[in-house]
């Protein structure tokens, strides 16, 4: 199934509130998530010849973990909105597809139950609370459960979020927090830290003994600050266009951050990535691997664990085929020389062919 068919099936299988939460954006002006997808596709792919492409390898190593595809599950809240087993089927589907998910703090399945039922390695997404004692308590549970790395989200500071305003969610939906059963949706966003400093990165490292990636970085100087403060790497992300209304696309921010951090830094990217061609573009713009958010939940809603295996397999096949016909057989060799800005299908469709 391609992702559009997957989405159509998810529309059939999810509740209205669940789907509105899943597909929602920051505000009225954000357009749809397609804005980021189109931004990746402003880049045309420039194929090369005279390269042996008999042995395409889509595997990469992230945080010391070797995965068969450069696609992992970006952390998204409440997987039970999509399937009964919540984050468990998402992780098991991604594991069968040769990868993993970043399990969210705001999960449907409590971390202990998730860890018991989930196969393979997984990472823990971290939302810090104003009350760091609450965060420390949860970190302890998560480390004990077996998280292999942390991903600290920086782009979602505490604020009273009125989820019902545009999307009709009234707080009585299926999304309740498995890890913090007493925190209602609105309390949840209110309790998030309004001040996260670079020192929190070291604090988390000391507390957990795990590598700490930071997520939601869009400016080169913030990426440099995070790395200097001890981050293992950065995830360039605009949170699936759900935080800042009118935010710039990740395709704009990513190459600038790669340039600032240099060749060796571990950099991930997400938002709007839907096809093998999109993955290829993100890798060429500087990502070592990419995250998919909504598509994994849609696939879970469309076909459970098997739906995820099928969709990730399909996108990875598309990537392998793009690599094969563009003349590159290793992920590490996909660089900016394969892209021409403004000559991709989305750009040409908007202003006509031009050289
Ligand atoms: C329903 C939903 C819930 C999300 N929840 C979280 C979260 O709890 N923590 C977080 O860091 N990012 C969260 N995100 C952002 C994703 O990690 C990711 O950045 C985004 O979904 C990527 O864009 P995509 O959905 O277009 O792939 C969420 C995104 C969605 C769609």
Automatic annotation (TrEMBL):
Organism annotation: Bifidobacterium ruminantium
PANTHER family, A to Z: 2-HYDROXYACID OXIDASE 1 (PTHR10578:SF107), S -2-HYDROXY-ACID OXIDASE-RELATED (PTHR10578)
Binding site for glyoxylate: 21, 127, 160, 239, 242
EC number: 1.1.3.15
InterPro entries: Aldolase_TIM, Alpha-hydoxy_acid_DH_FMN, FMN-dep_DH, FMN_HAD
Domain FMN hydroxy acid dehydrogenase per the UniProt entry, residue ranges: 1-344
CDD domains for the chain: alpha_hydroxyacid_oxid_FMN (cd02809)
GO molecular function, one term: FMN binding
Similarity comment: Belongs to the FMN-dependent alpha-hydroxy acid dehydrogenase family.
Cofactor dependency: FMN
Top EC category: oxidoreductase
Keyword terms of this UniProt record: Flavoprotein, FMN, Oxidoreductase
Active site residues according to the UniProt entry: 239
Entry binding sites for FMN: 75-77, 125, 153, 215, 237, 270-274, 293-294
Source taxon at top rank: Bacteria
Name of the featured protein: FMN-dependent dehydrogenase
């Amino acid at each position: 199934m391609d992702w559009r068919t997957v989405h159509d099936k998810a529309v059939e299988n999810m509740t209205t509130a669940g789907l509105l939460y899943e597909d929602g954006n920051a505000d009225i002006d954000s357009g749809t998530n397609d804005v980021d997808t189109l931004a990746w596709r402003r880049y045309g792919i420039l194929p090369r010849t005279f390269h042996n492409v008999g042995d395409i390898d889509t595997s990469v190593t992230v945080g010391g973990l070797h995965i068969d595809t450069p696609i992992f599950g970006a952390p998204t809240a409440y997987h039970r909105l999509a399937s009964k087993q919540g984050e468990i089927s998402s992780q098991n589907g991604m594991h069968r597809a040769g990868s993993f998910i970043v399990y969210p703090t705001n999960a449907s399945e409590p971390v202990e139950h998730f860890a018991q039922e989930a196969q393979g390695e997984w990472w823990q997404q971290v939302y810090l609370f104003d009350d760091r004692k609450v965060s420390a308590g949860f970190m302890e549970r998560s480390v004990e459960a077996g998280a292999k790395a942390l991903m600290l989200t920086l782009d979602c500071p505490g604020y009273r979020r009125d989820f019902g305003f545009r999307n009709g969610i009234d707080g009585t939906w299926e999304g309740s927090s498995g890890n913090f059963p007493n925190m209602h949706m609105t309390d949840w966003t209110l309790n998030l830290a309004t001040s996260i400093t670079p020192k929190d990165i070291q604090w988390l490292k000391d507390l957990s003994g795990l590598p700490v990636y930071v997520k939601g970085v869009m400016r080169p100087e913030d990426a440099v600050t995070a790395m200097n403060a001890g981050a293992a790497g950065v995830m360039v992300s605009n949170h699936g266009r759900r935080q800042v209304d009118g935010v710039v696309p990740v395709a704009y921010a990513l190459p600038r951050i790669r340039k600032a951090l240099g060749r060796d830094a571990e950099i991930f990217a997400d938002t709007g990535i839907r096809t093998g061609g999109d993955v290829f573009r993100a890798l060429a713009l500087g990502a070592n691997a990419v995250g998919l958010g909504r598509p994994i939940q849609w696939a879970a809603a469309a076909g459970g664990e098997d739906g995820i295996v099928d969709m990730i397999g399909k996108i990875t096949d598309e990537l392998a085929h793009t690599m094969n016909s563009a003349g590159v057989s290793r992920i590490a060799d996909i660089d900016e020389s394969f892209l021409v800005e403004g000559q991709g299908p989305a750009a040409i469709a908007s202003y006509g062919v031009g050289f």
